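Risk register update: the risk of archive-format incompatibility is retired. Evidence:
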Amino acid sequence: MNVEHALRLLRDCAYRFWDDQGTDEIGALLAEARACYDAAEGADPATVAIGRSLIAAYELRLCTDVEHEVNSGWDYDMDGPPFNGVEEEDWDEVTGPAAERAAEAARAAIDADPEDPLVPIHLGHALSWLGDRDGAVAAYHEALRRDPGDDLAETCLEQLEAEVPHYQEPEPRSYAFVVLREESRISNSEWAESGHVFGTFGQVRAAADGMLGNSGDLTREDLDGFIKLELTVHRPGRDAIVVPDLVKHVPREPDGGPFRIEWADVRVDDISESVLALGRPVRIGNLLHF
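Archived output:
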């Protein structure tokens, strides 16, 4: 489907930003993703709106970080933008249109998924860059209302010297989905984290086994210190089911790969009701899942 291909393209863009490699190709990838949404007849309107908001947010990031290099230290994944960066950072006045488009796309998608903080964060970033403090604060408040544990929204409010409200934990989301958080060691002291979202448990099994199958020449003993996989099942009206360490379900023998999880030991039922629409990203637990 077009929306699923668009999500893969957006995931590719995210990884290029995170790795700071291949960023010169991001513009073309975003254009292709937009064409996918344009051609997605009959697709879930909320998924399309959220995807367009993510495209516009990435175009703003591309504009400030890559094309014009006016970012003086803003880490998109950890911090809010410099307030009124459109005037304080952008002396050549080149980022305003991209920020306006990001705000417009976020406003159009703000109610697409009233349980996910992703779009309000897009809106907050764009408005903060444009110098609209009240609008940015309201957007970050909305992100925190949707997910009180979202540290990025809280950090952005603190940067704006705004009140950080304390909301009660929300009810479980109204749709079912499974997320897989992957941490891979990149140095002795650093781990890289990525998030993946699925609509069925079968998709998760294939993805997790694929990740372990790419573990190279590692021994089984080394595997524990190389990769971490956490599985969480979300279902409407129920508490989340968390399997914190899938790697411990990999048999100790054989000592070499490709490794496989012993799924019979993972006590998780599949999901069937109100499944998340295909091709939709999810922000949960401070991480964007593709």
